[in-house]
Amino acid sequence: NLQTCPKIPDPSPTLPSAKEDTMAFRVARALRAASAAKPAGFLDSFSESYIKWSGYRTFGLRAEDLVMEELPGVNEAVRRMSDEYQDERYFRFKRAMMASAKQTPLPAELHTKPEEDTQELIEMIRVVRAELEERSAYDTGEVSKSL
User: Fold this and answer.
1) Fewest CB within 10 A of the end CB: N or C in the chain?
2) 21-37: average pLDDT
3) What are the pLDDT digits (tens) for 82-139?
4) CB neighbours of 78 closer than 8 A, spacing ≥ 6?
5) Is 0.85 surpassed by the pTM of this model?
6) What's the CA gap between 46 and 40, in Å, rounded?
7) pLDDT of residue 117
């Protein structure tokens, strides 16, 4: 009782048509020219595109508002920020939740602008995490050899 094997496709590659060959050549040439001209520019434009596609700015949020508060050091970092910052953050969350519930983004004048998308909280999180690591090393008796 032999079972028949399914037909295996021909492994030989097919040659691209002249049109595909020239299109691939053009794309490759454009990518090489772009990377040679300004390597960081491509990453910057990709970063900006990704931020735009994520859509958090259309709801008036900042990138640092997306950090999960359950992560180590984030609650302490938020607590250390000024009362004004905490109030603004709470307002941004509340406004974004209302807009999300209505399933409509905020008007364009209320969108977060790139210069408003600061990293204040991220810097405070780094400071708090460094302190937590230092405290943990002290508690466990580990000594840094960098001294």
Assistant:
1) N
2) 51
3) 999 999 999 999 999 999 899 888 888 998 888 888 888 989 999 999 999 999 888 8
4) 69, 86, 89, 121, 124
5) no
6) 10
7) 83
